[in-house]
Amino acid sequence: MPGQPGQPVGAAFDALYRDLRPRLLGKAALVCGGMPALAHDAVQEAFYQCWRRMNDPDAEPVRRWDAWLTTTVVREAIDLSRRHSGSIPLDDVDRPARAPEPAALMDVKEGYLKVCRAIARLPLRQREAVALRHLAGLTTAEIARTMGIEKSTVRALLSQARRTLAPLSRELRSMGLLDGERGGER
Question: Rounded to two decimals, what is the model's pTM?
């Protein structure tokens, strides 16, 4: 396990960075409403915290770095979004190094931009709840603790956000952000 005393941390960290960075950037971009600079900052900060934790012999061991990093990235993205709220430029969304057929790329980009715009228009508390549930994978109770609110308020925020985002259900499903759950305690 990375971060254990006597084990090499550099190679484990490099592997995590290489494997998880692209996916984490996508999640951070959604939370940040499509602002690539904020998404990159959130991912960079999460990996910085990961590096520090892996090198801290007194830190509690992390069993699943992918889950830890995902939660950390989403929380960092939420914090950055709070500090940089306002108009959201969506023109500079990152493109993959090898692009598929131009028509398919345009469909994906248009869907992605629609989702980014819709999530960015959600009230901040709804956006936080959606990010913590669907991007960080937290339960209702964990979201309530993180946001400092009641579980019933979390369920209400998620329900309101789902209603607002319902017209984009096809795009959300294709991005793995809508899994058919109906407000469970997950």
Answer: 0.60
